[in-house]
Amino acid sequence: KVLILDFGSQVTQLIARRVREAAVYCEIHPNDVSDDFVRSFAPKAIILSGSHASTYEDHELRAPQAVYELGVPVLGICYGMFTMTVQLGGQVEASEHREFGYAEVRAHGHTQLLDGIQDFETPEKHGMLKVWMSHGDKVTSLPPGFKLMASTPSCPIAGMADESRRFYAVQFHPEVTHTLQGEALLRRFVRDIAGCKGDWQMGSYIDEAVARIREQVGSEEVILGLSGGVDSSVAAALIHRAIGDQLTCVFVDHGLLRLNEAQMVMDMFAGRLHARVVHVDASEQFLGKLAGVTDPERKRKIIGAEFVEVFQAEAKKLTNAKWLAQGTIYPDVVESGGTKTKKATTIKSHHNVGGLPETLGLKLLEPLRELFKDEVRALGVALGLPPDMVYRHPFPGPGLGVRILGDIRKEYADLLRRADAIFIEELRNTIDPATGKSWYGLTSQAFAVFLPVKSVGVMGDGRTYDYVVALRAVQTSDFMTADWAELPYALLKKVSSRIINEVRGINRVTYDVSSKPPATIEWE
Ligand code: XMP
After folding, report:
1. Between the CA of residue 317 and those of 246, 251, 279, 310, 320, what are the distances in Å?
2. How much distance in Å is there from the Cα of 396 to the middle of ligand 1?
3. Could you say which of 52, 172, 197, 215 is the most buried, measured as most Cβ atoms within 10 Å of its Cβ?
């Protein structure tokens, strides 16, 4: 396995992605771990990340000395190159030119890292690489034993290598996709130079994770808040695989779930996996607290607080539980660690099953902490969860509470659930001929929204005066920005006619054609 030491760069997790794409297992740890930690980790290679600090002089972060003493290959990236330089006896100086963004570097000499890796076919650009740079300072003198590996006009030492010790460093960022050959370079480092086999896959991950969970919890009991979402479901399946009945899942139904959701979760976990699941039907309690509340933020706060209360009451009943398990995944860790820039204003206060308070007095068990979303999904499938469940669109913690505008009533929730289920069913059943994928797969998130306004319609010979639903379907890669999906008219037509015919109480369907920004994905 490969050890990645994190100096706080925004893109450290991308290094892990690229390494795992080469089928090599890796873990990210902070740069200030002890020498003993590095030795006992027994890495086959070490990668030193970049840093968020714009210049080298901003701080004095160093890698543990053991990194250079283990005899394993080391790759320094950006700040990682600076710290390697300084620790091994070279020099770094502030530069007048800040280099940021696209650059072309020229490879020098023959190094195993860059040999044969290039972007251009033409002889005059032979050995040139298109890369992404972001740095202020630069290396001005190589540490003893190193030779020049790459340069740009403004950065004469953009890469260096000591091949006898297998130490390499690059000023640019191979982990970002703008560096076209970055993946090839990282693969070369971990597979060819470090000799990692490239046999890492989910099956072996399950065995390792199961062993780790058993070792961590011993014979103690664990509770987990199961929401039916991907992360908590996969965490539950994994922990159940490890410790069986020592795990109790608590599934809180706040009355704002999708159609048949509670049934599906119970069938899957209690029925098929034979896990211990406590099903708490708290819908009356939630709807009672929400009655008459129309402000979106207040609704969110009430649902969040109520959820914690219900869960805590259930947790207290399980007097033997010593652990609280959560489906925290790697991007959550990075986000809450504050390495991402914080938004200045709260657009929406998020409520998650993951956000339970630590006042429960339980130890935290987070077996998915190192995984990315797509890896969590692959793990779920490998654990036997149905692909339909594992590849679902995200569903917000407050559920239909933020999809029923204004006052929430049971009657509205029931209408919305049925309309939403029809929309999702048709998206799943409609295949796009150009891609062969269903429209459910082609959209990132899709749902119906209940509008508490009435409009006039005509049905048979009679006049109707009923509610409206809006359909929302978006495409996005990060949910920060999103485009509305250009669904085929025939699909919209079918969904609309089915909803109006099958859901008595709704006589009009509209399609939301707003992008984010300036709209948001959810309506509240
Ligand atoms: P917006 O509406 O802000 O949504 O564009 C972005 C993404 O976040 C989801 N979302 C939530 N997820 N708890 C969650 O777990 C919440 O309170 C919450 N609010 C919004 C939303 O569904 C979309 O995927």
Report:
1. 15, 14, 14, 11, 9
2. 5
3. 172
- Asked if residue 352 has its Cβ within 6 Å of ligand 1, the reply is yes
Angle (CA) 314 317 321, round 5°: 95
Q: Residue 278 belongs to a domain with what CATH number? A: 3.40.50.620
Q: How many angstroms is it from 446 CA to the middle of ligand 1? A: 12
CB of 460 closer than 8 Å to CB of 450: no
**Catalytic positions, written as ranges:** 78, 173, 175
Q: Which amino acid residue places its CA nearest to atom 4 of ligand 1?
A: 521
**Domain coverage including residue 346:** 202-390
Residue-wise pLDDT tens digits, 112-122: 999 988 888 77
Could you read off the pLDDT of 204-257 as tens digits, one per residue?
789 889 999 999 999 999 999 999 899 999 999 999 999 999 999 999 999 999
Asked if residue 396 has a cis previous peptide bond (ω within 30° of 0), the answer is: no
| Sequence-ordered list of residues with C-beta below 8 angstroms from that of 383, at least 6 positions apart, any chain | 206, 234, 237, 238, 241
Q: Which of 390, 420, 440 is the last residue of a domain?
A: 390
Task: Give 450 or 117, the one with higher predicted confidence.
Answer: 450
Q: What is the CATH number of the domain that holds 457?
A: 3.30.300.10
Are 156 and 42 in the same domain?
Answer: yes
* Same-domain pairing of 408 and 491: yes
521 domain residue, yes or no: no
In tens, the pLDDT along 391-427 reads: 999 999 999 999 999 999 999 999 999 999 999 999 9
CA 394 to ligand 1 center in whole angstroms: 8
In whole angstroms, give the CA distance from residue 163 to residue 145.
9
> What span, in angstroms and rounded, lies between the C-alpha atoms of 397 and 247?
22
Helix axes 202-217 and 373-382, enclosed angle (nearest 10): 90
Q: Is 54 annotated as a binding residue?
A: no
Same domain, 377 and 277: yes
Residue 439 sits in the same domain as residue 331: no
21 shares its domain with 39: yes
How far, in Å, are 156, 159, 452 from residue 76 at the CA level?
A: 17, 9, 57
Which one has a higher pLDDT value, 442 or 200? Answer: 442
Dihedral angle sign, alpha carbons of residues 116, 118, 122, 123:
negative
- Placement of tokens 């920004």 in the chain: 517
Distance of CA 430 to the CA centre of its chain: 28
- Main-chain phi, psi angles of 385, to 5 degrees: -75, 145
Number of domains, the chain: 3
At residue 63, the 3 state secondary structure works out as coil
Together in a domain, 274 and 330: yes
User: Is residue 62 within 8 Å of 83, Cβ to Cβ?
Assistant: yes
- The answer to whether residues 227 and 363 belong to one domain is yes
Cβ-contact 73, 46 below 8 angstroms: yes
47's enclosing H/E stretch is: strand 45-51
